Amino acid sequence: MGITQKEIAKNLGISYMTVNRALNSNGYVSDALKQRVLEYAKEMGYEPHRASQVLVRNSTRKLALFSSTLPRYFWDEINKGVQVAAQQLKAFDYEVHYHRVPELDTRAYLTLLEQEIAQGVDAVALVNQRMYDIEAVITCIEQAGLPYVTFNIDAPHSKRCTYIGSDYVAGGRLAADFIARTLQLSEKKEVLVLQCTEQDLSLAKGPNINKMRLEGFLDLMRQSFPAITIRLQYFDTKLQAEEKDNQILNLVRNYRDKVQAMYLIPAFNTDFLSALETAGVSDTITVLHDLDSTALYHLKTRLLSAVIDQSPTLQGYYTVMALEKILESKQPADIPLIQIDHNLVLTENRNLIHGLSAARLMS
């Protein structure tokens, strides 16, 4: 059991009420003494009693999260985690609002954010998505004096308190490791890697997750599996849907009989899986990112070999809990980054992943 306020008071030779005021910012305490109490409490691992904190502040705390709407399946999974956390915090007088903003509509984003600020939001979480003017969003948050975190895609050069999400370089390395080990007994070892065009990659204002995945994949292949040949091919995501689909299909057809594995980096799972079916791909290792319903189905049919899943449900859950910790902590700058590990989802374990995530949420 951690140290109590009474023990802190006794050890520091001050009154219990002084410690209580310092820890809860409730009443006057000199800055020097307050800092002394906070530093000692942190050193001794003091954990505030959450129910008592609710009574002290006597007000509802409001959290707001923002993301895009697409891909819908991904943000639906994020929302599952958000709702679990929101339910857990409801007893401690927290409200959680999750806004999914129309793509490319920064004005709508700022309007929703300004409404939350006007209604007294206490902390904010956002995804650093290049489809919005995130600099304007962050400026609005900072001008309001609100603490904020990033989730799913980081903004490392901002003043965010922490980041909750995956290491995308590690995701690429996991894909490389799976493919390489599966090809160990193959006489030929060639892999088709499908990526966005270089122009698409250069458009990102913040971290580009597809570029990071590719870097991780190539790095591990070059370091640990130099005998494997990589056939890196790009397709243009800015084309009309039918043209893009044809690009992917043609690449799959051209390499169907030349490679032993195919790895899709961007989130065009349905297009890629449709191309595999149309081209009649079989006996080829196929790997992509993010577990949607189509990917889950084709793990079952074995058209798909593996999915690198970034556990969006856990990202949503820990984002809300991080905001709560920041508000309840007297040292928000000390909140560490929360890295969510990737899952390697195979045919054999596909039905376990969501159960494991749910178990972690309840633990």
User: Which radius of gyration do the C-alpha atoms yield?
Assistant: 24 Å
Instruction: State the CATH architecture of the largest domain.
Output: 3-Layer(aba) Sandwich
How many β-strands, per DSSP?
12
Shape: elongated
Q: Which structural category fits the helices and strands? A: alpha/beta
The CATH topology assignment of the largest domain is Rossmann fold
Task: Give me the CATH superfamily of the largest domain.
Answer: Response regulator
Counted by DSSP, the helix tally is 15
CATH class annotation of the largest domain: Alpha Beta
Overall number of domains:
3
Lateral strand order in the biggest sheet? 2-1-3-4-5-11
- Mean of pLDDT: 89
The end-to-end span amounts to 19 Å
β-strand percent reads 15-25%
Helix content: 40-55%
The residue ranges in which pLDDT falls below 50 over 5 or more consecutive positions are none
Main beta sheet, described? 6 strands, parallel
One letter per element, helices H and strands E, the order comes to HHHHEHEHEHEEHEHHEHEHEHEHEEH
What would you note in describing this structure?
- It is elongated and about 80 Å long.
- The protein has 15 helices and twelve strands.
- The chain has a six-stranded parallel β-sheet with strand order 2-1-3-4-5-11, sandwiched between helices. It has a six-stranded mixed β-sheet with strand order 7-6-8-9-10-12, with helices on both faces.
- Strand 9, helix 13 and strand 10 (306-309) form a beta-alpha-beta unit.
- By secondary structure, the protein is of the alpha/beta class.
